[in-house]
Amino acid sequence: MSIDQKLAELGITLPSPKPPVANYVPVVKTGNLLYVSGQVSVDGAGAMSTGKLGAGLDIDAGRAAARLCAINILAQVKAATGSLDSVVRIVKLVGFVNSAPDFTDQPAVVNGCSDLFVEVFGDKGRHARSAVGIAALPFNAAVEVEAVVEIA
């Protein structure tokens, strides 16, 4: 089954990749690695999941926001490669969680992204990862995730 078929089976339609909002590129390819710039928790219609985890947003809302980040990473990878079937492995994720000072469940939040990659790619979706709590994100996004992806 192709990755596009797997996404359809999961009810996921990839949005058009979001253009950069500052002086950077969304994806850099070097050798067989793609470095995907941080993708925030915005859906295909442009609605962003905003706010702080532990101060208005609970873990389930954070997981959903991280899942949106994963979908946006997939959209960037597909735009850069032409096909998600070229993915050999999701190598590394760094998840940034907009967190209240006493919120410490960043790993549970970033699981929303990690779980989707495993759902889509199976063992190729298992990756190294960091989950970091920070005081603020651009546009008050709830979550931002960057990725390193190995391609064929």
UniProtKB/TrEMBL annotation:
Q: What InterPro entries does this protein map onto?
A: Endoribo_LPSP/chorism_mut-like, RutC-like_sf
Specify the Endoribonuclease L-PSP/chorismate mutase-like domain's residue ranges. Answer: 6-145
Q: Which domain of life is it from?
A: Bacteria
Transmembrane regions listed in the UniProt entry: none
Q: Which Pfam families match?
A: YjgF_endoribonc
Q: Which CDD domains match?
A: YjgF_YER057c_UK114_like_1
Q: Which SUPFAM superfamilies match?
A: YjgF-like
List the protein's name: Enamine deaminase RidA (YjgF/YER057c/UK114 family)
The lineage is: Bacteria, Pseudomonadati, Pseudomonadota, Alphaproteobacteria, Hyphomicrobiales
